[in-house]
Every structure is written in structure tokens, then in C-alpha cells.
Design goal:
The chain has 461 residues and is α/β, with parallel strands linked by helices. The chain is built from 18 helices and 14 strands. The protein has 2 domains: 17-63 and 324-459, Aspartate Aminotransferase, domain 1 (Alpha-Beta Complex), CATH 3.90.1150; 71-320, Type I PLP-dependent aspartate aminotransferase-like (Major domain) (Aspartate Aminotransferase, domain 2). Helix 6 (137-145) links the parallel strand 3 and strand 4. Helix 4 packs parallel to helix 12, helix 5 (112-123) runs parallel beside helix 6 (137-145) and helix 7 (173-182) packs parallel to helix 8. It is globular.
Length: 461
């Protein structure tokens, strides 16, 4: 009997379902009545970015800055040092980032895109080419705004939403090598996004990171990581890559950072913070240029647009995000939702990534053409049927570059329980029953690479 119980416990641990926390603070939520949801959606121009959060029942818009902080983070927050220069909280933050990344030069920023803006405005003058496994939308927009060209080089497996390949976030090495040769002198850095948010939050293998780093070094080009979800990526390497199971995510992350010359981080993800970001670098010369720019647009280099208490909470959160139990629960919850949706016949991008489940709206709603935004039609249906907010990652967000019409269900960290996610599954079941009746949308307003934030639509009949 005792043995059977032990076996059961180990399985539960393996699949991530021994929750490593309990809930101490709660926030009320409720589902607005169907008529009100319809009215609100119309007023919002069928763009859920325009809805008030209190009108949402389950908010899966993003995992960015929406997580629940731990008691240790709240305690650190109360001890935040708000000195303008040289605060104790900055020292704690600096020490943590240096320890995790092994990079000596660190600049805090108020969020990831500010790190991108500061870094790229010191690196680019126009006409450059920046390859990546896939740039996130703000990274792409920051590069384009400076007159350079972002180039996505995802591995071929990434375009197959069904293939059981464990590291679909990998970069296409042959394509990178060809680009480095062809654009010699025009590539100031190579980027890798860990995990690959644009490609369904898919992880990048350690082997691929090593190979990209080597290729970049051979061409005299620095490798810069977009490290927003580096801890989840390290967990996937631990869980999926042969020979890595015995290494804790922290150690794996340390090796990953050792392969790069610098990183840009939105700490609203794997920093477990509600706000924050940073730039970490090995080059003192580049650091000094970025520091000057940072003072102009963010603030003094020991707070960089953040309050001291934010830095203090991040110093704790960055460490917590690398704990194995935390990561197993986190990635396990995403995997549970993906498996359940698949079981009830919803086409999901497979295997599931680290922070979100990506539903293939193109396959669920094959009667809606790309020009009528099947992903956005599904996003609207989710709100109408279940008060759920999700985001389109397809022709609306990525324009002509979209290969798939996906809808992202991003799971905030430590916020929702399995019961909440069961409601999501239930809502999908109801949508599937009347999928053929759903109609597409006509774009009324919204242009450029960030149009999805501000677009407005009218329903097609
Ligand atoms: C991979 C990646 N990079 C950069 C960013 C930008 O970070 P922020 O939202 O903190 O500006 C995000 C945000 O979602 C992201 O997912």
C-alpha cells in the first residue's frame, strides 16, 4: 500500500501536479452576462485590448507582468530602498543578475522593450540586418524603427504544428550561416529568443544555442539573447534534451548565458515581476554607451525606470523562477491545458511550449479566409462564449509574415487553478459545436507592425 502511494506521488511530481504553493491572497472575478459581453465587444471594436480587465472572467491575454508574487517577494518589496542613486535594492538586483547570467554589466529598465530600445539605439544606425530564431513583435518594431531589418530564421520543424519535435524554437543553422556570409559587415549581432514566443513559446535546445554561438563567434558577431523566458527554456532543456536531466535549470541557464555576449530581458516573465527588465552585457564599452542612453530615456543607471521596491522584488523573483518545483508546476499546467484541448478535438500547436497554449484557428475555422482574420474571430468567440481573453498571433499580429493563424492562451504565473482552466476547455467545447457558424472580421483601422494593439474591426455577415 505504501509503495503504491509512493508510485502515485512520483507520477504526480513528474507531471507537475503537486502544487508547490498555496493561495494566501485572492482577487474576486466574475463572468459578465452574455448580453453585456456582446455589447462590450462591439464597443471595443472587436479588439480585446480595448476591454476593461474587470469585464474579463479568465484573462489569458498575456503572461507578462500578470503573475502572482510570492510572500518572499512581497517581503522584499516592503524593504525596497528608494534612494535615487546607489540603492541597496539595486545592489541586490545587480548581484542576482550577475550571478544568474555571469555578465558583469547590468542596466535595469522599466520593461523589456525599453531594454530593446536602449540597446538597439546604441548598436544600429540604419541598414543593418539582425537575424533571430524569431523576433518578438516589440523587438522587430524597435529594429525597424532604427532603419535596420529583422530576419526570422526558425527551424523547418517550427512550421509544422503537429510534428513531435521537442525543440521547435531552434534556429535554422544553415540559413544563419548563409545569411552571415551574404550580409558580411551588416550584421552587428545575432539574436536568440528563449523561449520562442512568436513560434508558440517553443524552446531552443542547448545544442542549438551552442551551435548558434559558435557560428556567430566564427563570423566575429556577438550573440545577444532575448532572455524573457530563459528559465522555462532551461527547464525544457532539463526535461527534454538527452543528457541534461541531472542538471538543475539554474546550472543549465548559467551555461546558456555563458554562450552569449549579452542579453535583453523582460523581467515581467521569468523575473516573476509585475514590471521590470534589464540589459546585461560583457562589453564595458557597449555598456557605457547604453548607460548614457539609459539616463536620457529611462533614469539613473541604478534604478532605470523602476522603483527600488520593484528591483528588490525582482531580485527574489529571478531566483524563484529557476527553482525546479516551480518550473515543473508552471510548465506542467500549460501542458495539462494543451492535452485537454487536444483530447476534446481542438487543434493545438504541438508539443506545448512553456508559457502558453497556441490554438490553430486556421484549422478550427477553415471556412474563414486569412483576410478575414480567423484567429481574431476565435478570440472574439472565446470572449462571447466564456468571458475569456486571448490574443491572435497570425495575420493580424504578424501581417504577411504569418505562417499559421494561431490564438495564444497565455497562462499567468501562479494565478489560475485547474478549475479555471477547466472552464477554458468547456468554453472551447461549446465553440467547437458551432464553429461552422462563426464569421470573420473586416479591419477598419490599424496599421504597421504593432497594429494588433490598436486595430478595430467590424464583423462580416
Ligand atoms: C520574447 C519577448 N521579448 C520581449 C518582450 C517585450 O517585453 P515587455 O513587454 O516587458 O516590454 C516580450 C513581451 O511579451 C517577449 O515575449
Amino acid at each position: 500500500m505504501q509503495e503504491a502511494n509512493l508510485a502515485l506521488r512520483l507520477v504526480a511530481m513528474e507531471s507537475g501536479w503537486l502544487k508547490p504553493f498555496k493561495i494566501k491572497v485572492v482577487e474576486p472575478i466574475s463572468l459578465p452576462p452574455p448580453n453585456r459581453r456582446r455589447e462590450l465587444l462591439e464597443k471595443a471594436g472587436y479588439n480585446l485590448f480595448n476591454l476593461d480587465a474587470q469585464e474579463i472572467y479568465i484573462d489569458l491575454l498575456t503572461d507578462s507582468g500578470t503573475g502572482a508574487m510570492s510572500q518572499a517577494q512581497w517581503a522584499a518589496l516592503m524593504e525596497g530602498d528608494e534612494a535615487y542613486a546607489g540603492s541597496r535594492s539595486f545592489r541586490q538586483f545587480l548581484k542576482t543578475v550577475q550571478e544568474i547570467t555571469g555578465m558583469p554589466y547590468v542596466l535595469p529598465t522599466h520593461q523589456g522593450r525599453a531594454a530593446e530600445h536602449v540597446f538597439f539605439s546604441c548598436l544600429l544606425s540604419g541598414g543593418e540586418v539582425i537575424p533571430s530564431n524569431a523576433h518578438f513583435d516589440t523587438t522587430r518594431a524597435n529594429i525597424q524603427a532604427l532603419g535596420a531589418t529583422p530576419v526570422d530564421l526558425p527551424c523547418p520543424e517550427a512550421t509544422d504544428p503537429e510534428a513531435d519535435f521537442p525543440f521547435k524554437g531552434n534556429m535554422d543553422l544553415a540559413a544563419l550561416e548563409a545569411l552571415l556570409e551574404r550580409e558580411k559587415g551588416r550584421i552587428p549581432c545575432v539574436m536568440l529568443t528563449l523561449t520562442n514566443n512568436t513560434w508558440a513559446g517553443q524552446p531552443v535546445s542547448l545544442a542549438n544555442i551552442r551551435a548558434v554561438s559558435e557560428l556567430a563567434r566564427a563570423h566575429g558577431v556577438p550573440l545577444i539573447l532575448d532572455a524573457a523566458r530563459h528559465a522555462e527554456n532551461a527547464y525544457f532543456i532539463h526535461a527534454r534534451e538527452p543528457g541534461q536531466a541531472k542538471r538543475p535549470p539554474r546550472e543549465i541557464a548559467r551555461e546558456v548565458f555563458s554562450l552569449a555576449a549579452g542579453c535583453l530581458m523582460s523581467a515581467k516573465k521569468d523575473g516573476l515581476g509585475n514590471i521590470g527588465g534589464f540589459i546585461a552585457l560583457r562589453s564595458g564599452e557597449l555598456y557605457e554607451r547604453c548607460r548614457e542612453r539609459l539616463i536620457l530615456v529611462e533614469g539613473f543607471p541604478t534604478y532605470g525606470g523602476l522603483a527600488g521596491r520593484d528591483l528588490a522584488a525582482l531580485a527574489v523573483g529571478l531566483q524563484e523562477a529557476l527553482e525546479l518545483e516551480y518550473l515543473r508546476d508552471r510548465v506542467g499546467q500549460v501542458e495539462w491545458l494543451a492535452r485537454r484541448l487536444r483530447e476534446v478535438g481542438i487543434p493545438v500547436y504541438w508539443p506545448p511550449g512553456g508559457h502558453a497554449v497556441y490554438v490553430d484557428a486556421g484549422r478550427l475555422l477553415p471556412h474563414i479566409p486569412r483576410e478575414a482574420f480567423p484567429g481574431q474571430a476565435l478570440v472574439c468567440a472565446l470572449y462571447l462564449a466564456g468571458g475569456i481573453r486571448a490574443v491572435e498571433v497570425g495575420s493580424l499580429m504578424l501581417g504577411q509574415g504569418a505562417k499559421l493563424e494561431l490564438v495564444r492562451l497565455a497562462i499567468p504565473r501562479r494565478v489560475y487553478t485547474r478549475e479555471h482552466l477547466e472552464w477554458v476547455v468547456d468554453t472551447f467545447c461549446r465553440i467547437k459545436e458551432r464553429a461552422a457558424e462563426l464569421r470573420g472580421l473586416r479591419l477598419l483601422a490599424g496599421e504597421g507592425p504593432l497594429r494588433h494593439f490598436v486595430a478595430r474591426f467590424a464583423p462580416l455577415h
